[in-house]
Triosephosphate isomerase (Lichenicola cladoniae), 251 residues
Amino acid sequence: MSRQLIAGNWKMNGLTADARSLAQALQSGAGNGFGHADLLVCPPFTQISTVAGILTGTAITVGGQDCHMQAKGAHTGDISAPMLRDLGATHVILGHSERRQNHKEIDETVREKVLAARSACLIPIVCVGETEDQRSADGHEDVVGWQIKGSLPDGFADGEGVVAYEPVWAIGTGRTATEQDVAAMHAFIRAELVRQFGDAGHKTRILYGGSVNAKNAAGLLAVADVGGALVGGASLKAQDFFAIAAAASRG
Ligand SMILES: O=C[C@H](O)COP(=O)(O)O
């Protein structure tokens, strides 16, 4: 099995003291790495510099949670991909369902942001996933299929771009998708990637996200075609984040 990526999305959590203390706990536990897992944390913009500084020299990399589609200019309050890179970020989460919902981001916006990330040498982690209503109406494959078509630009699979499948109803709810559902959706996403990008689509990592925790991680990470996890709440405790990483190592 190839290395899995365990990515922590801290979302809008962490004043400087919190971020410093969590980063220090990660630094002390990081050791020489985690077997089959690559580790990444994505703090809020305001803490990236602090966290990247503390984690320098460890096996844990740092990413952003969003970026603007332009590299610079008159965009009050926005952060560009080169700015993230400048702070030490290696990755950026794009098209998270909270951005799609709260900021009305559409696939075309996400696609433009992926291009911006690529120009700044950041690895994009593009989130896709259906709502509960869409799944109840049996529309989950259609929704995710369209998100993949619309959000991923040409050549996406030639780089290190990552896709994260996050059923919206499983995010922050404690309701995890069953391993059967995860297997079915990851197989569907893989088939879509190959249809869109040819052979290169076989190598794109597909993460699962949605209430992943220290207890359920081993089962989810052992599912075929799960290339890692995008972890929200459980990534705010170093011990839980490491337990998930350890589960990946056993995958
Ligand atoms: O980006 C992370 C996901 O939204 C999952 O969040 P969660 O682990 O708190 O459910």
